[in-house]
Amino acid sequence: MKYKMVACDCDNTLIATDGCLPKDNITAIRKIMNMDVEFVIASGRNDLLLTDITGEIGGQINLIGCNGATIRNLEKGIVYRNEPIPKPALKYAIDYFNAHNIDFKAYTLEAAFSKGLDLGDKLERLTGVGYKKAKDFDTEYVTDTDFIKELDVLKLVVVDEHRIVRKIQEELKHTEGINGVLAADVCLDFISHKATKGSALLCLAEKMGIKPEEIIAFGDTENDISMLKAAGLSVCMGNGTDEVKRICNTVTKTNDEAGVAYMLNNVFGLNMY
Q: Residues 256-272: what's their mean pLDDT?
């Protein structure tokens, strides 16, 4: 099979645990891009938070952001998809958060609003892992969140202990118009029910004339499953969850061992090792 597209999750997949992009991954990605293979980053992050990474790699890279709510090429200024959370579901979720004193962060295409949540600091406290802050557009910290209900919000984020985010996910799972997925054990993202990494990947591939079987996808956790199932070759990271390992075609090395580069080298014969 000649693969024409590689789609890669960001955190705990493409980048190492310390938030840095392994040099081997940069080398491998540049090599496949020179072979006219389309490289796509598919992240739970807002795509503006990926500019440090795309800058290191170079080239014009299409980005799937907010777990599939957006597809955008920042260099070309093209938005292929913008799928905000439906307003009734957004209002319901925010009212739920406020009623239960849950801190959260809301992302639009160009801005972020936070009620009591410093995402990086809380992730570091809960995981014990240093979180490298990406270059960010300004986050506005607010106490009154009613105005957020009227915005085109792409993603709501809650960060807490695993048992707590699972409880929140369970209690909101039947809310019409919204879907909750884990981006990490302690990080819960809410997006439109129409938005998944998998649907976004297939949408982008169709625009580029690429068939699903011609796609390789890399991921490590729950929010990657739809993308992995959509691809012709699904690759779980060595540090991925057992659930993801079970549904993938193969498992590569960990993110700290540049597992993306290791697999790309094997598939495309890059002669790196």
A: 98
